[in-house]
Amino acid sequence: MSRMRTPSALAGLLLVLVTLVLAVIGPWLWGAEAERFDPLHTLQGHSPEHPLGTDDGGRDLLARTLAATRQSVWLAVLATLITTAAGVPLGALPSVLGPRAARFTSGLIDSLVAFPVLLLAMFAALLAGAGARGAVVGIGVAAVPGLARLTRTLADTVAASDYVAAARVLGAGRSAILVRHVLPNIAEPLILTITANLGYALLGLATLSLLGLGVQPPDYDWGRLLHDTLPRVYVDPEVVAGPALAVALAGTGFALLGESLARASARVPVAPVAPSAPSAPRGESRTVLPPGCGPLPEAPEAVLEVRDLTVSFGGVTPVREVSFSVAPGELVGIVGESGSGKSLTALAVGGLVPHPGTVAGRVLLGGRPLAELTRRELGTRLAMVFQDPMAALNPALRVGSQLAEVATAHLGASRGQARKRAVERLGRVRLPDPEAQARRYPHEFSGGMRQRAVIAMGLMGEPELIVADEPTTALDVTVQKRVLELLAEVNETTGAAGLLISHDLAVVSQHCGRVLVMYAGRIVEELPSSELRRARHPYTRALVAASPDLETDRSRPLATIPGRQPASAEVPAGCAFAPRCARALERCRTDRPEPVDGLACWNPETA
Length: 607
Ligand SMILES: Nc1ncnc2c1ncn2[C@@H]1O[C@H](COP(=O)(O)OP(=O)(O)OP(=O)(O)O)[C@@H](O)[C@H]1O
Hints:
Elements: H1 7-35, H2 61-96, H3 99-114, H4 117-128, H5 132-142, H6 144-159, H7 162-169, H8 174-210, H9 222-229, H10 238-265, E1 304-313, E2 316-326, E3 331-335, H11 342-349, E4 358-365, E5 368-369, H12 375-381, E6 382-385, H13 389-392, H14 399-410, H15 415-428, H16 434-438, H17 447-458, E7 465-469, H18 477-494, E8 497-501, H19 505-511, E9 514-519, E10 522-528, H20 538-545, H21 586-590
Parallel strand pairs: 3-8, 3-9, 6-7, 7-8
Antiparallel strand pairs: 1-2, 1-4, 4-5, 9-10
Helix pairs in contact: 1-2, 1-10, 2-3, 2-5, 2-6, 2-8, 2-10, 3-6, 4-5, 5-8, 6-8, 7-8, 8-9, 8-10, 9-10, 14-15, 15-17, 17-18
């Protein structure tokens, strides 16, 4: 908050404090004086008794300006309440509606933003009737589209975070996600924006009253005082000075304070932002599985059965016909270069492929199609551990509450039981003093502790499968090792199967029994990790050669794989690895090899 010690922030704070104090005490101290008619001293200029002169009733203009503070601020507060009450829910709606309704609401917000503000204000004011009420409604409604758009943008950002994805996997409903995860995390920037809006409302209302459209006599606000005194500006300029200065200083104070707070929190621009592209509406389940996802799996004992999984985004298909299974208690690794489709495969297993991705093929958890599982079933049977543990935890909630929520929401546990379970699970992942850790916020944890907390969250149910997508990339090497050991231990002690996604072959071969090697969206080889050095696919061999271990001769340059993996849209007709493969035959460039006995290659290594 040292950024709040800027001159503009301090000036804003001072002006707002003075305005608020005047709003409270103004009518008490100067109300009677402001109302006292004095027919003998009407329309006077500056004098020792009346520093800012008098109006056409001989009433003191300084007293009237000070007493009008409450009315001016109160009306601005009412207008801002209207803006907030309509703008925040409207902007948050797309996060809770189904894809079609979300698209419609987003479109509505964008159209309203494009509508001229002045017309909107006048239209709303006309409907609400003349006078202060119409002005308040007009100014309040005019700011709704801007606030709704900001809310939508903020909500989208939070809704796209890993901790919301994690909450979805844990089975949280759309309204629970909005109330528990989205709103608390956008509250701060919204409050700052609303503070600044108060300043704009004050200026807007004063303008309407000045034009004679706002507050009507005998009531008065600063705008009304301006309206009454403006014709005398060339004769007695001081009579206009009071209300004009009051409007300018108070309006500027709120705007400065709001903007300074926003800058200090560095979270969001407060000033009206440029129209954003319509955001992708959020769907409850973005995974589209074909209806009646087929018969029982070929290997009914498998915890996870994936058959012909294909993930597409428009015309691009980053994951193609991927098939594999994971047996109970088995730890399977997926490796491959960046962009080979590992993460999308993991997301598809959790039903979390982002919009507008579509998923075809079969994903069966415990023999049942993913689409048939209820949220509660999915939440308790599957745990997902993402790359960035900070992003996977809701920063606004204590770690213990986040864990306990899984048990109250999905296991029907009481708050007390849930809390006990959360502390027990934090202890199980070897966090020292779990009771105290449960009371802390994620930012008070180190990276390794956070990842342990995420794993503990996954263990709140009794997961049959833990999917960990690059769980240690954000951690330093020693912490990486401990977290991976923990995952392996959980896998051993709970019997949960594991799917470990990593670009680090050494990590996978050390912890997993079996490895799936992905290239350009397909599994090109599936083999026991003990066989990696004897892999038959030239790509797997190249990956192994490019992966250093303790025996690697560091005096020689590390082997690299020449060329680059084709982008999803440019995958060639034959084997996608052929252009980089030293063993490629003519056939490799024209015919795609289908996997046979876990190997998709026309000319495999033999020794
Ligand atoms: N939301 C999306 N929209 C469109 N394309 C996507 C989306 N997410 C991923 N892709 C594309 O899918 C391909 C595979 O991505 P994915 O994240 O699964 O790769 P990865 O193997 O996990 O890579 P990394 O190791 O870098 O995470 C990439 O080429 C990526 O551009």
